[in-house]
Amino acid sequence: MNRIESLPGNRPPLRPTAFIALPLGAIKPRGWMQRQLRIQGGGITGHLDEIWSDVGQESGWLGGDGESWERGPYYCDGLIPLAHLLNDPFLLSKAQKWMDWTLGSIQQNGQFGPKKNRDWWPRMVMLKALTMHYEATGNSRVPDFMLAYFRYQLKALLKKPLEEWGAARGAENILTVHWLYNLTGNSSLLGLSELIYNQTINWAELQGHYTLKEHLPFKEFNMFTHVVNNAMGIKTPGVFYPQSGNKWHRNAPKQGIENLMKHHGQPNGIWSGDEHLHSTSPTCGTELCAVVEYMFSLEELLRILGDPFLADILELVAYNALPATFSPDMWAHQYDQQINQVLVSVAKRNWVNNGDWANIYGLEPNYGCCTANLHQGWPKLVKNLIMATPDGGLAAVAYGPCSASGRVQNKVPITLTEETDYPFDDTVHFHISLSQSVHFPLVFRIPSWAMEPRITINRKEKLSPEPGSFFRLERLWRDGDKVTVEFPMGIRISTGHRGLISIYRGPLLFGLKIGEDWKKIKGVEPHADWEVYPTTPWNYGLMLDYHNLQDSFEIETSTVNPIPFHPDLPPVIIKVKGRRIPEWGLEDNSAGAISGGSFKSSEDIRELSLIPYGSTNLRIAAFPRVL
Ligand SMILES: [Zn+2]
Questions:
Q1: Measured between alpha carbons, how far is residue 495 from residues 314, 487, 542 in Å?
Q2: What are phi and psi of 126, to 5 degrees?
Q3: Rounded alpha-carbon distances, angstroms, from residue 240 to 178, 245, 328, 472, 576
Q4: Distance 407 CA to ligand 1 centre (A)
């Protein structure tokens, strides 16, 4: 068996997508990204089955009589891409046993999975894992297995329609049905995807027209206001758009994102929800499952709709919200992260309905969904950094060190190597390796925040692309060609909740570096549970000269360390002046409510260090101003 070299684009009558995903295995991580994946593989993902019985040998998804619902499939949805991206035999052998059991579980009628659980929902997740397994191995059992299951599902859904989580998350199912349709052309699959869409919650209406407001503020448990459902639901109309051709389906995700951010948005690019949608206050929580699911939704929407706006958000969430909610070694994670997170402890906080353990760093804080589901975040980002264009070229849709191998114009082998410390650095070098010269398009996403971006070809030709666009270079490319893309990163300020300000440089959000004292409260290392106490003050306001903003900041950069996101080793430090605001203290075990000011303070002026939000475990990232 060999990995699949390329995936087909949409087969008519499905409308074409803007980009076509490269199969798992085509893109490999390099540089800091590879180190980050190795941290994950050598830690929590590589060993979770040894320490957490829900994905251990007892799992119903390995034929045991233990957990038989979503946790095994969630784990596979991250373990499989990680194992293949790193090409790590230890991880690959772990991944293989889940795939072997799952493929062997198919019944006469086409149903698969643990017999004691008949829910549609966990199967939707395992199908995603199976598509990646097929892409990376070419295992020919997978398409036949999926065809048999989808035949079963088409009949069975009429008697046992999607409900609860399955009805909220039908888009996951549609993605794999379309994937198989493009592979096989079996037209009954489009009947199935339509049926699934019709049985799925109407997210276009809830989010795009924001009828969500009828269910807010949260009173009783429902599927509509659940933070993870919203992160998954956002892609639903976009995923179905190639089949429906309905313009509203194409436009609803963007409108939905704008509505969710307006009412619940946080400076790290995602909305709050501690377990249900909460406000724009920087002490609301955002669940890790919502972070990784929103990333996946954005990756799929970007592939289908091709709007560069989606990639800007993807990088914001991936390079800030994702690393921030892990300990630097990735063994411990939070259930809920806060933008202004000044104390991590077991205590009551102003959540909608999460528990007292939700913002500690641990193995299974609050509830184990994130423990099972966290694994997909980094690997799927890497898998989607580069995509194919429908006319035989390649597109760099998000940036990070990697290399992509494939064929351009369906024939000529290419390796496109991306050398960069992005998002910590503003320059990305692309090296093109070809067996012969060939004419094809290379497409580069230009982030909307880029200040006077530049593209240089072979150190000679210089171009000035538009920020917030995809820039297309179609020409005869030769082996050894080089393209350098630069996105000068000035400091940007955004004003959010009650006039509080957040500081950005490129795709990175910055937070106040606060001294950390980690106290072990449960479990054994390396997978223990931790509280984190501040050892330095946090109640600072920033002193900014709005007439000469860039001069308010000094930037220090260094190389990316072996652990890319660590509070003691930040690759970028922004120095800015501030004063303490003595009346700003703790409230409900979080930073107290405060407005943007300006505040008068007679405290001493201090030079503050702001570091990447993703490197912090305690921080202020929505600041008041002081005079
Ligand atoms: Zn979760």
A1: 20, 23, 13
A2: -65, -30
A3: 9, 8, 38, 27, 47
A4: 38
pLDDT tens sequence across 109-134: 999 999 999 999 999 999 999 999 99
* Whether 595 contacts 500, CB under 8 Å: yes
CA distance 390 to 82: 27
The rounded Å distance from CA 78 to ligand 1 centre is 14
Rg (CA), the chain: 24
Cα 448 to ligand 1 centroid, rounded to whole Å = 31
Coil, helix or strand at residue 562: coil
- Among the listed residues 173, 177, 204, 219, the one whose alpha carbon sits nearest the alpha carbon of residue 11: 177
Ligand 1 center–CA 188 separation, angstroms = 34
pTM, whole model, 2 decimals? 0.98
With H, G, I as helix, E, B as strand and everything else as coil, classify residue 191. Answer: helix
Tokens of 68: 């038989």
Q: Is 609 exposed, middle or buried (0-12, 13-18, 19+ CB in 10 A)?
A: middle
Give the list of residues 6+ apart from residue 377 with CB closer than 8 angstroms, or none.
78, 291, 292, 295, 318, 322
Phi and psi based region of residue 107 (left: phi greater than 0; alpha: psi -120 to 50; beta: remaining): beta
- Percent of the chain predicted with pLDDT > 90: 98
Q: Is the pLDDT of residue 67 over 80?
A: yes
